[in-house]
Amino acid sequence: MGRPDLNRRQLLAAAGGLAVAGSFGFAALGTGADALASDADTRVRYWNLFSGGDGANMIAMLDSFRKEHPDIAVKDSTLQWGNPFYTKLAMAAAGNRAPELGVMHVGRVAGFSPGRLLDPWDEALLARYGVRKADYNPALWNRGVIDGKLYALPLDIHVQLCFYRKDVLKKADLLGDDGRMIPVGSTGEWFDVLKKAKQVQKKGLQTVGLWTNDQNFQWWFFVAFYTQLGGRWFDEGTPANTEVLFDADKATQVLEFLRQHVTDGYVIPGAPTGEQFINGAPFTWEGNWSVPVFSGAKLDYGATPLPPVFGRPATHAESHAFVLPHQSGRGGATNEAAHELAAYVVTHAQQWAAGGHIPAYTPTLSTAAYQKLEPQNEYVSAMDHQATEPKVWFAGSTGVLAQDLGPVVVSSTMGSAKPAAVAQRMKSRLTKLLASKNPMDGRTAAQGGTAA
Q1: How many other CB atoms are there within 10 angstroms of residue 225's CB atom?
Q2: Which of 239, 321, 328, 428 has the most crowded Cβ, counting Cβ within 10 A?
């Protein structure tokens, strides 16, 4: 059965009702503003959502590509991060005004109507430019595969980390002979570590920053520890995603663990986590994008994946990935140039790693230059222990799943609701989401073709 046509109303609904009038303007953060008037043989329009340090790193990589490929003019445009970006990209694809190349979070791909709003990659063409499936972690590569076709070419994974102050942990005798934090393998061991650190830390600071009031971070932490327990979301049969397998008992364990940080006094709710860490707090749980901030502050610190307190290593991971927004006439020189540009950035990601992200192209990880990066070389193992959201249309960065379940996780961590009750509420909401239809194409998760 064919997919229903997409219209403006459906696309606006898919963005969660956000006003998008302002989203059609974009910040010209790139250096290819004159590409439209370039004398180059081929032009590639490239939309991304990278700002700040990420944006500067991406621009440096694009400038290197331009220097090496003067025959390809790259017009890069940086748009507002989050749903405004996805709304604009969807409407451009539906209206046949899409750029040749774009960026998405891999978790959002299943809900972006692959085959209608996204075009598949030509794997043979990617291989010509040096990118092959064998160069990737298999689980990461397969997250971008829908109905047997590759729709997302991963650039990186970005993960949640446990940052720690070496100066504080040294006083608490919590550093190993290698100068890194001692390993932790249970909830009891973790709270023992916090107790020892609290005894030597500066007064007035929290022991660990957990972003207790932030629905995104609390959701990401929940996903990590629920995965450590082996928790499942939905069935994986044929068709997949027809039954909720969410384990409320395991969820309760995770929620009680997060809540204990507050009740035992290791967290100051609402405290600025990054600032507290810079000022001397022993720990903070942050995304790897905080590496440039803490390194810039000249801290003596390290960073590991979130501690495997439930026995199984797993830390929350998302991935920036290149996509081909749908063009009715995709093909020819511009399409080939888009493949070449994406492959170039993927295979030259040392610059990207400086921002804290783990390059998806695994040959980069074995280079001497990458292995010298600190603390990146301490948490690179996260590539093999990714805790990801389920592969359904409502998942992914800033997606419906995080918006729906993140606030209830916060309510448990902050104490306004009991963990066991919150776990049951989460299961109920997952049941409703599984039965709901994707506004992009009117299909449920079971009908959406998400099998790798």
Answers
A1: 27
A2: 321
Residues 125 and 149: their CA atoms lie apart, in Å, by 14
Nearest to 399 by CA among 245, 127, 204, 216: 216
Among all chains, which residue has been given the structure tokens 């290593």?
313
Chunked mean pLDDT (size 10), the chain, 452 residues: 36 35 35 54 94 91 96 94 86 93 96 92 98 98 96 98 98 97 97 98 97 97 98 90 96 98 97 96 97 96 98 97 96 97 97 96 96 97 97 92 97 98 98 94 82 40
318: β partners:
158
Measure the CA–CA gap between 241 and 224, rounded to whole angstroms. 20
Where helices occur in 79-184 by DSSP H, the ranges are 83-94, 123-128, 138-143, 166-171
* DSSP for 403-434, written as a single string: HHHHHHHHHHHHTSS-HHHHHHHHHHHHHHHH
Number of H helices, E strands in the chain: 18, 15
Residues 6+ apart with CB under 8 A from 242: 234, 235, 434, 446
Instruction: List b or e across 305-337, with b for residues whose CB sees 16 or more CB atoms inside 10 angstroms.
Output: bbbbbbeebbbbbbbbbbbbbbbeebeeebbbb
Residue among 181, 125, 112 at smallest CA distance from 325? 112
